[in-house]
Every structure is written in structure tokens, then in C-alpha cells.
Amino acid sequence: MQAVDNEVLNQVAAWLHDGQPCWLATVVRTWGSSPRPIGSLFACNPQGQIAGSLSGGCVEDDLLEKLTRGELAAERAQLLQYGITAEETEKLGLPCGGHLYVVVEPLTPAEPWLSHFQHLRSRLAERRPVRRRVDLRHGDFSHQDVDAHEPLQWDAASQVLEHTYGPRRQLFIIGAGMVSKYLADMAQALDYEVTVCDPRDHLLRDFNVPGARLINDMPDDAVRAHAQDPSSAIVALTHDPRIDDMGLMEALTTEAFYVGAMGSSRTSASRRERLRALDLGEAELDRLHAPIGLPIGSKTPPEIAVAVMAEIIAVQKERLTRSRQALECANG
């Protein structure tokens, strides 16, 4: 399953490449209860084809009607507000008190739009972030390659939108066993991109989880090629030290926000000694979550998968909280 942002931007680029004009809408601000978060994307074309979502209700239909009738964003980007009146809130199915502020951009199949969206697609495919800047007042737009994801910024006074796309969260699984199958399903339901690596070809052939990318390679090479970025979580689940240790040696030197390995406390202690003997430092070993998962008494493969996914979510949320606090301190 593609991340919604990737799906919308890929669809926009495809429409433009095929010579079709279209519109791109971005939620830039919400007030009260909101069905979709800030940064949500929605795109449509004059034929009524759509991608993404603004509300999951009637907002999309209303916006598409206004656009195709030429009542909105006919020639330049425009800010649209939904949910200002109680009647509108009820009509559009918004939660009580919910307001949406949406920037709508008309796009045409010509330069510089074509190269602009092609560059966005390329960056997302490489799991590299890119920031868009849209100036509604002057009708300008641009992009800039950046090193890290940043929250969407909307300056109402200057009418400037800055929105960073990608990379999507990835769960990189070493080992194509039973726990991996349950974990891959859960992770995809939580909008993680899932990659499964195993050098044992016969296990990969039986890994029937739709949407998971399968790599038949040694885990250290695969980690190096596909999971170096700070939006990746890496888990080793084979119980075979000849496979798991190779992947962990590489994983613990990456920017991955989570690295974990399955096994008992005794197995985990032995693993740390092996990795220490392979010249990994204490700072790198301290990053390893082993035994893997939250201690919920899990025994069965689905229970273990729940515990692992819960710990990954907790680690990521803590990391995001620290980043926000650091940003707030930096901004005074």
C-alpha cells in the first residue's frame, strides 16, 4: 500500500505527463475537530477522477463541483475555508466545530510544473525529503531538497505554504518467518512501507503478504541499500545468528530510528557479546532493542508481532516528541 501523499503526488505527475490539467489541494490549518490532519493531500482532474482525501466525507464532492464549474482556483492558487457556518458543517459531514483551511492549486501540463512534480516523485522514490514552497500572493512555487522532514508551515499573513514530503516510515524485516508475516500485515495497516529480506529463497517464495517488498539478498547488503534513513525501523527475526548478526552489524550503524532483534534475555546477551567482538561500540549496542517488543507476556506469533509493533510506535512517538521540544526551545 502506497502512502497517501506518494499516491496523490504520483497521480498528479501522471495526469500532467498525459497532458491533463488538474488541481492539488492541501490542508494547511484545522480548527476544532478535524477528520484529516494538517498536510493531507487531495487531487482531482476535470473528468472527476480523484486521489487522496480531505475529509472522508462531502468536502471532496463540494470542492470538485466548485473546481469543475470554474468557481475556484481557475488560474492561480487560492485558500478555501470549510466549516465556517453550522449549516456548512452539517451539510459536509464535518465533526462538530471542525474547520478546514485548504490551499487549492491549479496545475497545467507544461513546464515548469512537469519537471517540478517529476523531481518530487524522484525524491520520494529515493526516500529523501523535499520541501515545496507555494506563494499564493505572487503565484510562485518552488522546491528545495532538504535533509530532514519538517512540519507544514502556513503563513496566513504572507499567504505562503511550505510543505515537506517524504520519506515514508519503513519497517525493514530480516527473516521471512511466521512472526514476520503478522508483523508485515500490522505495519502496513499502520501505513508503514514493509520490506522483507531473507537470503533463503524458499522462505521468500512462501511469504504471501500482499504489498510487502521481498528481497532475496544478504541482510547487511540489503540494509545498506534500502534502510539507511532515519524513517526506517529494522528488526531481525530469524533466530539464526548467521543471518541476524550480519544485518544487525549494519543496522546499528545506520540512522534507523529503531533496531530490534528477537530472542530471549539469554540469547540477547550472547548476541551483544558477539556483536561487541565484531567491533561494535557500546553506543551502537545501546541502540539495540533486545529482547524485542514491549513486555506484554507475548507467546504466539501474532502476540509477538503486536508487542514489536507497539514498541516501534512508542519509540517513534518519543523521538517525535523530543524533536518538537528541541524545535520549540530553538525558537524560544
How would you describe what is shown here?
The chain is an alpha/beta fold. The protein is built from 11 helices and 15 strands. A 6-stranded parallel sheet has the order 12-11-10-13-14-15, sandwiched between helices. Strands 3-2-1-5-4 form a 5-stranded antiparallel sheet, with helices on both faces. Strands 7-6-9-8 form a 4-stranded antiparallel sheet, covered by helices on one side. The chain is elongated and about 65 Å long. It starts with a helix and ends with a helix.
Between the first and last Cα atoms, what is the distance in angstroms? 40 Å
Q: Give the spatial strand order of the biggest sheet.
A: 12-11-10-13-14-15
Strand content: 15-25%
Number of distinct helices: 11
Instruction: Calculate the mean pLDDT score and round it.
Output: 89
Helix and strand composition category = alpha/beta
State the assembly state of the protein chains: single chain
The beta-strand count equals: 15
Q: How big is the Rg?
A: 23 Å
- Helices and strands, in order, run as HEEEHEHEHEEEEEHEHEHEHEHHEH
